[in-house]
Amino acid sequence: MPLRNPCALLPRRLQVVASLTLAVLLFILLLGSHPTSTSSTDYIHRVPYGPAIQSSAHQLVENLPQIPHDLPHVNTPAWLNPFRGPAHTPPPEQANSSSGEARWYTDFKWRNPFSSDTTLDEERAVLPPLAERARVYTYFESTSKDDKTKKIELELLQVWRRAWWAQGFKPIVLGKPEAMNNPLYRAVQGLELEDAMEKEMMRWLAWGNMGTGILSNWLAVPMAAKDDTLLEFLRRGEFPSLTWYKGLESGMFVGSRGEIEKAVKEAIAFPAINTTKSMFEAVGKETFAVEADHGAIAFYSSATITAKYPLLATKLSSPSTAVQGLALLPQLINSHLHTTWQNTFSSGIAVLKPLPAHTTTLIQPALDIARNLSQCPSTPIPASCPPNKPRCKPCVSNNMLISVPPVLRNTSSLFTIATVPHPYTLTSLLHSRLDLGVKFVRRETDRDSWTVAATKELLGTGLSSFSRLPALKDFVAGSYGEARTLWLVAEEPVRGDSELDLDALDWHFGFQLPRSPVSDGKSVTPVPGPERRPPPPKEEFGEGPPLSEQELMTERSMFMQAQMILRDSATGSAKGKTRGGSKSFAQTREVVEAWNLADTEVWRFVRAWDARRQLERRGWEEEEEGFLGKGTFGRWIDKIT
Ligand SMILES: *[C@@H]1O[C@H](CO)[C@@H](O)[C@H](O)[C@H]1NC(C)=O
Ligand SMILES: *[C@@H]1O[C@H](CO)[C@@H](O)[C@H](O)[C@H]1NC(C)=O
Ligand SMILES: *[C@@H]1O[C@H](CO)[C@@H](O)[C@H](O)[C@H]1NC(C)=O
Ligand SMILES: *[C@@H]1O[C@H](CO)[C@@H](O)[C@H](O)[C@H]1NC(C)=O
Fold first, then answer.
1. What residues pair up with 127 in beta bridges, in sequence order?
2. How far apart (Å, rounded) are the C-alpha atoms in residues 324 and 302?
3. What's the 3-state SS for 101-164?
4. What is the DSSP string of 436-492?
5. Does the pLDDT at position 546 exceed 70?
6. Cα 354 off chain centre by
7. Rounded to the nearest whole angstrom, what is the distance from the C-alpha of residue 469 to the centroid of ligand 2?
8. Ligand 2, atom nearest to 474 Cα
9. Contact 421, 572 (CB under 8 A)
10. What does the pLDDT read at residue 405?
11. Residue 128 and residue 108 in contact, taking contact as beta carbons nearer than 8 Å
């Protein structure tokens, strides 16, 4: 290696000396003035800088002489971080990393307090890498000629897809084309098989054609908490051996491509294959590993239905009522999925409402969702339990508790619906005014009030708002939080008047939420009371005093105006700030954002998190469409509609 000119080294050395000095100075400063903040918690360890430095950063901002009127981009607290690397180019745009106004960048550094440290861009939030979804396949081929039956089958497939998707899988419906694509198909064609075995072979050929994954019957759905051990194992998508789940009949297998192929070849070579009825008879015992734990999977096989749901079985067994019986099945499965969810969250649903005196309007959509979630599902067999949980607690009278706490609570059996307002919206509501000048914001408003209020119990009162961010982000997007929370952006919540957005909620939860307060009257057995909608919780107003009708109306109108201004300010800045009004809106927005760095960060993070989730599902639907020409599910819809 050639020796460099020693003079070139000098500045570098100086740099090192300077940053070391700065670090030491900061340390002395902080250890002296912030004894409490050294008691760091779990989350802080994951952050490259400690709480002490965070609070000092906060102090520095607080003591800034004045936020200049034309506001250069002080939003980036990066300059406060003495350990920052020398990078000055923003990371490249990743594929599919924006939706509407939300933009994001996927990186392992997502827990860092500020995204802009990584993206060098205030609008781009850093999100955790998207988990690869394990594939779960089902083989579906309708034998029915009648349209009504086909429609019900389609509904059942939809129930199957939604339930697996919500549990973090990628459900794929296979059909004959996939089976025929398998090179072993010709060999199977040459065999004279019994009907049942022929179907079983087609199923295995289709699975073998796709490779490693889970093969599920389309009447087998996951029904358990997200962190169930079997589901966690399945989600990893690595299957060392071909496994049969004893007790699920042939409802579910897992295996790798090589193992599946081996089993199919073995069956083909079996001399008496023309008299066998299942794979088990056609292959050696040692081909399958047998697993007894299957509690997370509910399989509605004929044997199960006969044993557990006689009402349904009776209908199904008579040709004249078979279609009627089948029509009850989607609703029954949906109600069991909903019941399982309700049982998982035995402490009820918490609708987060920090700063309760002024945020009643903000949480309305969240309350609406909570009430529907706590409602008893309509079911053809009231008080029935899922096949895999014979001792469930059926929903009889909307007995799920809805609370409206002012703080986030980390209780594993509590489901939290949180609504994050933009700081502009929140400041307007808190101070009942829309024009927020620099002076007013700096002198009259608290910083990051939402973040501080929401995490008061979780993180105590000693921390700065910056150092609360890692824990808060973890609560949104960490695997523990993700399974127990739903986060909404106050300005664009799931809108109740659009079919599409309600759909998105169904895919999030894995079942269709009740959407009508009373029974639809279609169920055969008259269902008593339970379908009435639960009333809003008594503590609707959290800890604040109940608002009068007049106050509520004022709050609502203030909220709507703030929403509009916020929307305008975004378009204003995008269009080069040509319009006078937009320009001042954009400036106001920047002032409020610069003053509330943590609240703004949370808002952007949640907005991007939600947008990416929607995008992922839409992308998958399109992918399914394009599957081998056209996915079975798509082919199937075409045939029916
Ligand atoms: C099964 O196949 C064997 C030979 O491949 C044949 O001898 C036997 O008769 C077949 N049995 C049935 C029931 O078709
Ligand atoms: C909540 O509690 C669980 C387990 O008790 C823990 O793993 C998790 O990190 C906690 N999350 C937060 C944000 O406190
Ligand atoms: C909740 O149910 C009501 C009717 O009871 C319905 O109008 C509303 O759209 C539902 N909302 C959600 C989010 O499901
Ligand atoms: C981006 O989305 C499009 C369509 O939604 C899809 O075809 C493409 O594969 C996606 N790209 C990546 C890298 O995910």
1. 106
2. 16
3. CEEEEECHHHHCCCCHHHHCCCCEEEECCCCCCEEEEEECCCCCCCHHHHHHHHHHHHHHHHHH
4. --HHHHHHH--SSHHHHHHTHHHH-SSS-SGGGHHHHHHHHHSHHHHTTEEEEETTS
5. yes
6. 22
7. 14
8. 13
9. no
10. 93
11. yes
CA distance 598 to 360: 22
> Does ligand 3 have an atom closer than 6 angstroms to the CB of 533?
yes
CA of 455, nearest ligand number = 2
532 in contact with ligand 3, CB cutoff 6 A? no
Burial string for 473-482 (b: 16+ CB within 10 Å, else e) reads bbbbbbeebb
| Residue-wise pLDDT tens digits, 316-374 | 998 899 999 999 999 999 999 999 999 999 999 999 999 988 899 999 999 999 999 99
Q: What is the pLDDT, as a whole number, of residue 406?
A: 93
Nearest atom in ligand 3 to 515's CA: 2
CA–CA separation, 16 vs 10, rounded Å? 10
Report d(CA 122, CA 400) in Å as an integer. 41
Domain edges within the chain? 134-299, 322-623
Distance from C-alpha of 516 to C-alpha of 514, rounded to nearest angstrom = 6
Probe residue for ligand 4, chosen from 96, 98, 612, 615 as the CB with the greatest number of ligand atoms within 8 Å? 96
Index of the ligand 3 atom closest to the CA of residue 496: 9
Query: Which pLDDT band, with edges at 50, 70 and 90, does 39 fall under?
Result: very low
Report the pLDDT value the prediction gives residue 20, as an integer from 0 to 100.
Answer: 53
Q: What is the pLDDT of residue 537?
A: 65
576 contacts: CB under 8 Å, gap ≥ 6? none
* Ligand 3 atom index nearest CA of 517: 5
Q: Residue 263: pLDDT above 90?
A: yes
Q: How far apart are CA 155 and CA 360, in angstroms?
A: 38
Whole-number Å distance, alpha carbon 273 to ligand 1 midpoint, is 9
Q: What is the 3-state secondary structure (H, E, C) of 588-612?
A: HHHHHHHHCHHHHHHHHHHHHHHHH
The 10s digit of each residue's pLDDT in 459-484 is 988 888 889 999 999 999 999 999 99
pLDDT number for residue 18: 54
Question: Given CA atoms 463, 464, 470, 472 in this order, what sign does their dihedral have?
Answer: positive
As a whole number of angstroms, the distance between CA 195 and CA 173 comes to 21
Closest C-alpha to ligand 4, atom 4: 619
For the domain spanning 134-299, the CATH number is 3.90.550
User: In a 3-state reduction of DSSP, which class is residue 399?
Assistant: coil
The answer to whether residues 594 and 75 touch, using CB atoms and an 8 Å cutoff, is yes
* Secondary structure class of 171 (helix, strand, coil): strand
